Amino acid sequence: MYEEIDFKKIIAVSNRHVSRLPYLAQVERIVSFHPRAFLLREKDLPEGAYLELAGKVQEICDRNQVPLILHFYPEAAKQLGLPVVHLPLWKFAEAGEDGSLKTGVSVHSAEDVRRAEKLGAAYLTAGHIFATDCKKGLAPRGLSFLKEICEQTELPVYGIGGIRLDAEQIQTVLKQGAAGVCIMSQMMRM
Which residue of 26, 121, 145, 175 has the fewest C-beta atoms within 10 A of its own C-beta? Predict the structure, then answer.
């Protein structure tokens, strides 16, 4: 069913609220396809509960040799010995770059790209590219936006938002200069 999809171009993004299977079973299923990374993006969890969940997800990712990227909590990444964290731009600016973690940053404009680069971002996610229920009522920025972002930086850029587990759509995103894609809903429902 997924034979045509290059999972090494996908960062799987979590959302336990839309998981088809019990959450940890769904994580196990997702990482069995060996995506580029698994981004634990459970935005509603306080840091303690997030860290506890991250430890369980780390065991699954390690067993499947899939890198785990934590979201929003740099201290949790440090506690678990993980080298990468993903932050919104405002949080990255607030936290500062101390060199202990590679940081992925969400960007939504050319100005965001310049700021993220100046702060020392390791990679960027840019979006939302297509219409998505996660941003209901908010118009997508589209492929031309993604192309513009990719042309403005040497950093790897991953398109995010409304991207499906569809080889043709993924190729369309990659043709804009993206290093890969981030997929949440369809990964959590596969």
Answer: 175
Enclosing H/E stretch for 68 = strand 68-71
Claim: this prediction has a pTM higher than 0.90: yes
Q: Is the distance from CB of 74 to CB of 121 less than 8 angstroms?
A: no
Helix, strand, coil share (%) of the chain residues, nearest 5: 45, 20, 40
**Which CA distances in Å does 13 have to 19, 21, 51, 71, 96?**
11, 15, 17, 10, 24
What are the 10-residue block averages of pLDDT along the chain, 190 residues in total?
95 98 98 98 97 98 98 97 98 87 97 97 97 82 98 98 98 98 97
Question: How far apart (Å, rounded) are the C-alpha atoms in residues 42 and 124?
Answer: 19
